[in-house]
Design goal:
With 518 residues, the chain is an all-alpha fold. Helix content is 63%, strand content 1%. The protein is built from 22 helices and 2 strands. It has a two-stranded antiparallel ribbon. InterPro entries: Cro/C1-type_HTH (IPR001387), Lambda_DNA-bd_dom_sf (IPR010982).
Amino acid sequence: MSDDEHSDTAEPAHTRLAHEIRRLRKKAGLSQPQLASKIGYTRQYVSLAERVDHNLPSADLIKAIDNALNAGGTLVKLREKSVIEQQELRTQSTARRTPGQPTAFKASTHDTAMCDATGFHTAGPLNNLGLNTSPQRRGEWTEPDRVERTSSAPIDGENFCGAETCSPSATTIASTMPAVQPSNVEELLMSAAEESSRFLTWAEATNVGELTVEQMHTEVRRIAHSYLKVPTLPLFARTKALRDRAFVLLSGHQDPRHTRELYAAAGWALTLLSWISVDLGRADAAEDHSRAAWMCAERADHNLLRAWVRATQHTASFWQADYSTAAHYAADGLNYTGTGTAELFLSSALALDLARGGDAEAAEDALRRAQRVAETSDRAVEELAGPLACSVDRAGSLWSDTELALGRAEGALALADRAVAQFEATSDERRNRGSERMARLQQVKAHLVLGDLRAAEQALRPVLDTPVDSRVRPLVHRVAEVDTLVVQAGWSADPAGRSIRGAVADFRRDTVSRELTA
């Protein structure tokens, strides 16, 4: 054993365990956060494990640290000896009681110590009374430390310990607690006061301030504004990082209003991840993101977020040709008030879903409703940009698609022409390039249906200039529909038809999805 190791066997095993963890961690050149990352815990777990004045770490935590530091079972054995020493202390405490006193509540034998909410075990003579006199025990207000919870980890209102290790109920304590001797009264009173004081400290503490929340939402707005204006893959990574940061902060403790704001930020990030996942051709992944986003919207009690989550779920279903489910999501999203231009998008999307699903009458009604909404639609105070905002020109592209699905090519062309003109008149700062390309493709398809091959070829050119990193799956799908229409119309042999088909083939060869899998 080296000079810096703790060889004093007179020290309690728990003390030697804490010192040994610290020594081995430093020997390995790891900081507490680095070790925590290696074992899947947060820094606070490692910090508490190295403290001699805290409860005994759980067996799982010590095993993980032992493996990470290549301790060869030394830490596990020290913990086992600590458990034995604590059991002996409890036995001695029981033996010292006045004869005839009722037997106090006996803790569960799980690891021969009682487990608290943080994964640490309690110790001390008064534990047999079921009293909370340790720094951290079950029932104390400690923030949840694990960033990623397992299925057995407590969340929300679940019990913080299993039935086998849970502290006794109030009834059990009342029936088994020994009579308190006068010498213990002051100690018990002060213990209760200390617990109340700790609760106040916990309730006022926070890992999030106003500026942190503001920064989170600022980043959400920046990402939404950058949508389809910057390369898709880096934007996805940036959005994921924002989501992960929100998750980490939510695992800590903050004022309830900040918690709601963090859920909202996480929800927006998840909604954007869902939308980008559709763009990258993974509607199945988009569904997972959007389900989590919906939970965040519910926790935040945020109608605008609810509406855009439903819009995103509609989009994921639509691009899987599940028009019935898409319509269900769009219709449900319309149930929420104060949703700004989300109402315009959802009502327009619903009309298209119904038309694509073959319900012409319902589609007509929905289309008229959408056009009425457009007359009064205003942006919500918290409205974002990009995919999470809907201008009249974007809605016009959806209306054009609806008209075409209803077999009215002339009406579709008129709406598409108007939408494209509105896009062109919009400043570059506010221009939604993705929706503009879709509107131009509506022009192309309408021209083809009306038999004007040359006009279709001309309308297609701006779309073919789309940068590769913006050639997302929905856009590629729409371009492929142009090729199908050329073939169905019998124009494959026409020079203009051959030109369109060749250009479409080149366009589909280089896309962001192919870049992702390259």
